[in-house]
Amino acid sequence: MTNLLKNPLTFFSIIILSILLILAIFPSQIAPMDPQKANYDALRSPPSRDHIMGTDYVGRDIASRVIYGVRTTLIIAFSAVILSKTIGFAWGLASGYFGGWFDLVTQRIVEIMLSIPSLILALLLLASLGSGKITVIIAIAVGGIAGTVRIIRSSVLSIKNMPYVEAAKAMGVHPIIIISRHIAPQCTAPLLVVASASLGSAIFAEAALSFLGLGITPNEPTWGSMMAVVAENYLRPLWWIAVFPGIALTLTIMAFNLIGDELRDRLDPKLKGEIKD
Amino acid sequence: MLSIPTLIGVSILIFFFMRILPGDVVDAMVTDETGALVFTDEQVESIEESLGLNRPLHIQYLGWMKDVVTGDLGYSFWTKVSVGEHVRRRAPMTLEIAGLSLIISWIIGLPVGILAAINRNSTKDYISRGVVILFLAIPSFYAALGFLIFFVLLFTWRPPVEVIFFWQNPIQSLYVALPAAVAIGTGMAAVVARMARSSILEVIREDYVRTAKSKGLTKRTIINRHVLKNALIPVITISGLQFGNLLSGAIAVEAALSIPGLGALLAQGLADRDWMIIQNLVLIFAFLFILINLLVDIIYSLIDPRIRYD
Amino acid sequence: MRTINEIFMRKSKLILLITSLAIFSLALISCASETIKEVEVIKEVIKEVPGETVIKEVPGETVIKEVPGETVIKEVPGETVTKIKLQQEFITVAPTPIPGGGIAISVDMSDFVFASNEPNPVYGGTVRMTFGVSVKHTDHHQMPVAQGAGPHNFTVMYNGLIRMNPNDGMQTIMPDLADKWEISADGTIYKFHLREGVKWHDGSMLKVEDVVATFERIVNPPDHIAIGIQSLFTEIDSIEDAGNNWVQFNLKRASAHQFNAFTMLNATIMPKKCLEENNFDLREVVCPGTGPFKFVEYIPGEYMTFEKNEDYWNPALPYVDGIKMIHAGGTARGVNVITDIADFAWNTSEDGYAQAQAEPNVNSKRMPNTGSNYWGWNNAVAPFNDKRVRKAFHLVVNPHNFTKVSLGSTKPSRWIPTLAEGATPTEEFYNLAGYRDDNAADIAEAQKLMADAGYANCEGFPVKTMAGNKPDDALPVAFMDMINSNLGCDIQPRAVERALVQDQFSGAAFKAGTEIIQHLVPVQAIKNYTPFMMGLYGTDSTQNFTNYSNPEVDALLDTMLGELDADARAGYTRLVQSKLDEDPPLILAGFDSHRAVWGKHVHFPMDIRTQSIWGRIDTLWMDKR
Questions:
Q1: Using one digit for the tens of pLDDT, what is the confidence trace for C323-337?
Q2: pTM
Q3: Closest by alpha carbon to C140, among C224, C225, C203, C231?
């Protein structure tokens, strides 16, 4: 555990993640004010002692909105990743183990889905399902399934022909038991790697979607929608409305990326990436 | 050459998502978040008829495919302008941005990656890796917004907001495309740098490099003659894969900078639930993506010496 | 080498030419100096003679008008009076109040030549304007008519009968397609003479039948279309061709606002042929106009272009070769002018305006605008069919907060713009419930009303959404904040494209009473706000989307339409305002101002404009390019 902390980048990301976790769980205790409450006497104020990140055009405290945004972002990102990895894991296992036409069909579907950039796929889904928290989660999740299936499937393929698996098969053990007891555990490493990489892109996706106005309802504080306002009104007095959420977004993505990198280096150095020397 | 069946498959997928899922496409157009209808029943019916939605599904699909193949991309539901016309006007802009982003990503990413690899584990390496990680994390639309604010505040300058074809007025056209390209390109540069670094490090370990070293060739010669060529192959591959991110990034970046490109068109179509635009534009994006990856495969097979000697 | 003969011949031709020119010009001069023509006219006439100021009053008669700096000479009734040809002078023609008798008006401005108010205009160039909205359709008269959402851009290609004069800041009336007009003594007959030789953009000639067809559609639209300005012309009974290129409007009764209504920027004349060919629905076709610019193309989301009409009936105009209207967002419009992407913007955001004011190479001006945002609900169904709920909403929304979040642009208004006649002075109504800043008592009352209506703390309140163009904007966020935090409701925003907002009023959510819609009150340029109130709040009126029906208000408005005494009208207006306070149909954010920004190289009298009225730029010219 200690050498985990030796790497300054990893140390940094763990700190960030802890802070994010605390903010997500206890926003009301930490945020200085109600993120939705308008304050007509403190409109558009730049960062000051009363409002460290300033206020927006209806006087809402930016710092509070950024803090409440943590919870929204993390919930959506984690839900999407859990959903997509669960489905992808099961599908990849089945496809790899059972082979046959199911596997062939899976491979084709995966290839097709990987031909559409995941954000665009999410946009397509949102167009037909409409906006809202659930649909946003589903939309982001769908984009992550295909990649997971591919990776898990190739893991399964390399394990499938191991002697102990053959032996279990010969003994007539039920396939479900074989998969769950012998194969699946070996695939958790790549699963974790893929999952951690996906978190960063899920967070980005949620921000991009709300920036485009397609995220969850317009009024809840999300970092993307806060930045969207400034895209329209980009003049001097309001830069803090976009800059602070953007910093929060960048730090969050960075932290998750770093953790993802660390996990990958430890769990599966064969996978492409940074080569630690 | 699996691309054609893949493309067909993509079109079926798009069709599936738009029509078959719960959440009928017209429904999404005509309801709000609470599920309440915002059009009258008669209006919904006439919409469905005009979009041909009361025909059986496979007929609708074939009808769409026939239209696409003959170049008829339909008409925007709200603005009544042909989608094809929109695409003709806007595609050059987006492609210009894409091309510039790619170039920028190489110009910045390759030197950084090579430098980091050569000076492995030195301070230079750590700094560049830190910077790379930072730029990987910065969302492209945030960077775009940042540039815009920066230029407006300090220089009272903002890029023009209309379509300017490169062949008509290259300087003005670059004014429009460069800020977007830089915003997207710096993110991609980080990916390229990272890939280049690890790929070079891997190649350095290869036997033939050790042989070259023992032969007494200078570091520079080794790098130039043996390492770079081989190490850059994965970089090309990753650039191709990144094209997908590029297209997605273009949507938000074009929205941020008010650039009338394909991405902005898609964003607009999504906001208006303009189903003709959404469907056909996503198909076009997928087509471009597949095309680029095909190109990458071809280039790959041309320059990878291992494949050549096969 | 020329022979002497040739030279002589040449010289004599020259002499002949010069002589005939001299005779010709002498003839012209003598004709032009003829200023008086004898024509039989019913009663009074208005004549200005520059120089001395004389105002003669005859007891029993009313003074008709005054023009600052000019003289007025009044004639005694009973005698045949002369009709005067007016040269380059402006008159205000507000129909006179007619107590019992009547004073007819006859105006001949056929010598009037409209041109730039600055000397030596420069011809050429394409003026780039920025505007902010995708135009939903191309019918200049059909809804939506709000200045930003409708097809107002097309104003540059059409003409009306008369118009307001930009050279004095839109204060007085000047000719457009009509160069002479007459109003009967009892105020029920208006006659306009169309100037000769006006061509449509397709080459055909303008005829009286075009005017008749246009106004018949406005006054009596067919079922399948909705005309925005219909509410301004409700007092017109019939329209006819009065011969000799005169068109005649017969009114049901004398009405104070009626004449000025003809100056509205979209009371434009359409060709009869185009109307008939398109079944009187011009939403998908751009009809030829008579105006100084011709339509070229429209790329939705990007721009619209017009080119100079070389055959325009005013040969000196327009000065520019063409117009390019570029689509841009609120702040961007001002910034575009500053950064020379555009030359002119009718309006920009407060931020854009602040930036423009600091910029030396642009001019900017804030002008009152008689448009306003409003939030409308369905008054015909629950919950808003309960007067208590309506009143509660009215009390809980503090309009001063709108002023704050709009950076001073939107000012609290009591149902009508402060420059309208009969408006309550601000010192007065800023103390009234629902309008005062210190509104703790109002909030308490509102909460009690909601509880009485069965929605204590907003429980069970069916309204879920507020639909609007940009629900993230300051005004709607403030509106929802005030409702939600003061009444305990949870109304969420829903974004709708600007050009589609009007459609939401026929949507199921609105019909079911679960949605409030944010819309715009259309801009109007006349001080008499009666027809607009009628349109917005009169039962079944064209702009009354909220299904409001208040018989007392209807009766008052009807009286006001026929009331010719301005003081009496003002009194009625106050009454209407307090009735609306008691039983509110919707919530007005407040009439606000527009901030125009234009480059210093643009010559167009924007700085003297007293009100923000978009539209014609035929006398605009530019220095460079």
A1: 998 877 777 788 788
A2: 0.76
A3: C225
